[in-house]
Amino acid sequence: MPGVRAGHPGRRARAIEPFRIAVPDAELDELRARLRATRWPEREPVADDSQGVPLDRVRALCAHWADGYDWRATEAELNALPQFRAQAGGLGIHLLHVRSRHPDALPLVLTHGWPGSIVEFLGVLELLTDPPDPRDAFHVVCPSLPGYGFSDKPREPGWGIARIAAAWAELMARLGYDRYGAQGGDWGSIVATRLAALDREHVCGIHLNMALVAPEAIRAAGEPTAEERAALAAAAEHRRFGTGYSTQQATRPQTLGYGLVDSPVGQCAWIVEKLRAWTDPESVLTRDALLDNVMLHWLPGTGASSARLYWESLHDPAAREPIDAPTGLSVFPKEIFPLSRRWAEQRFSDLRHYRRLDRGGHFAAFEQPELFVDEVRAFFRLVR
């Protein structure tokens, strides 16, 4: 079968075990009790969100979380999918592994970022695995990053993007995939590019909905266009007002974690601020969708462990290394730093697909699942 690596099935069976989520009722009761007993701060003294998520918005969302949100529905949706736990890089990794009914489907590993989770991809799984044209079909592997969701929390330093990429290569080999693609946004895009460098023999191409380039690459491209000047201005605004979270997570993730793991309101506000800020206003994420993602952080208590990825990798120079693998880049308008094509070409020497979309943001699969899938299909048709 194309794309499938031979291996010993018994060995794979021991390495990859079925997994189901079963949150005890007592844990959900405790969450509701914590929400109802919240000690709230005073109302912000400004009429906008320049000091953070407004009090009224957080109180309304958390009131729904306590009395209207149904975790069991999301738990059932996840448990209806093939879930597994696998050892990769010496760590237990939680993953969805949804195989297409089409045997010649291309294996594809989807990687989320922060403050995301695998729930970002729930709306695209069926579209990817069972398309109108079987030639567009994928076998989808969707792992939770180390320290995120139901993956193990690293107990030692060193779990940066290179080690995660090596674990993903090991995971795809254990699943029996000899040739596969990788897709990601946020940290997922950095993992995907690193994976292309580490496992070039098996990675047929990468599709990104966020990409980074070094400042010198931007300078090398020459005088910026009007569109590029707007992107540079937006990036400067983001550095000035929007990066406090990353500085904290990159320097003192443990200190931050005490509050996030103990307070559901604190964890919710920390995450939802970014889900709102980096989302296209034309993309409608329901309250329940926002809370589904928050729950993948709250239930396993990942406030500190997810933040440590910034401590490990925020300034890793490999995040901007040249990439020669076939690459596709889809730029959604509300992306934090929308790369122009010529900037992207400074780093990605085999950029085969580049498109700017008219709606959607940083969480492309979550916000615009059909547009996202159209872009993934369009790129991988070029490299299948």
Explain what the structure shows:
The chain has about 375 residues and is of the alpha/beta class. The protein has a domain at about 10-35 and about 75-230 and about 315-380: Rossmann fold, CATH 3.40.50.1820. Helices cover about 45% and strands about 15% of the residues. The chain has 17 helices and nine strands. It has helices at about 10-15, 25-35, 55-65, 70-80, 125-130, 160-175, 185-200, 215-220, 225-240, 245-250, 255-260, 265-275, 285-300, 305-315, 340-345, 365, 370-380, and strands spanning about 15-20, 85-90, 90-100, 105-110, 140-145, 180-185, 205-210, 325-330, 350-355. Strands 1-2-3-5-4-6-7-8-9 form a nine-stranded mixed beta sheet, with helices on both faces. Strand 2 (about 85-90) and strand 3 (about 90-100) form a beta hairpin. Residues about 5-15 have low confidence and may be disordered.
Short description:
The protein has a domain at 9-34 and 75-231 and 317-380: Alpha/Beta hydrolase fold, catalytic domain (Rossmann fold), CATH 3.40.50. The chain is 45% helix and 13% strand. The chain is built from 17 helices and nine strands.
